[in-house]
# Entry
Amino acid sequence: MELNVQSVLKWIEKLNDKIQNNKEYLTSLDQAIGDGDHGINMARGFQEVINKTTTSQYDTVSDLTKDVAMTLMSKVGGASGPLYGTAFLKLSMSVKGKDPVDHDAFTAGVQEALNGIQQRGKANEGEKTLVDVWAPVLRFLQENSEFEPGKLEETAKVAMESTKDIIAIRGRAAYLKERSKGHLDPGSVSSFYLFQSLAEVLQEGE
Amino acid sequence: MAYVGIVLISHSPKVAEGIKDIIRQVMKEVPVETAGGTDDHEIGTSVEKIQAAIERADGGKGVLLFYDLGSAMMNAEVAVELSESEDVKVAVDLPLLEGSYVGAVESGMGKSLDEVLAAVKKAFK
# Structure
């Protein structure tokens, strides 16, 4: 795989489309076990990202992902702002000076992004958070230096679905204890969209 | 005399303002600034609002941040990292209302940032 400014712009656009189209769905998931603002917050944040990235010029993937990070941190309002913001910021720092970003550089970036998410949210795998999608995706990237994009999407999808049976111990859902079981984690669903969008960009690039 | 500043971070602008009113009843000199709600004054928190409140509250003796739920803590931490200052600290896992009240009283006694934070921790652990 190889990512440049153009393909990362496409990635962000696809992700924004999915979030806007599934805004009500994400909100309904969050109403079940959280504070019900995930769809609205993500839709607002990523629209601001698109407004910023479509009116700016970027020479490197690092510059582009840094702008994504700063916009998410300042515009989202809920927990997804600092979490996704931190993820993109760590990715940006990791891929600095590595254009185009190849498989190894991207995998290292995802590792840094996941570390950032875990540090910010104080969450481990198996606690019904977006970590439950990012960690399996990272392992997939580490184990497969070459892969079919569809497999990446499948990994993220299975991981997202696995959050349904977990009892939450982080975030607002943790207050519900065992009643959080039986519901998908909204952050894992938006993270699935993120990796699904990436898979589509890689598919088109082949 | 400079005092350690107090920043109140809440998902609700009303909650932050209400706590400030309670503190102001007894502590009039200590800088107390609010960062309640999102940029659009909706329920949530904003890094930019927190950064602005830190700047207003900083009288040279440091600033202590109190928060309510989830994203408030994460955004408080982001704001501290962006401030690149060692004199801005987050009161982690301490109650927003009671903690900031104790913090303001301790600050009013002229204590340092670390002393104020230690006193608040001691009051609730």
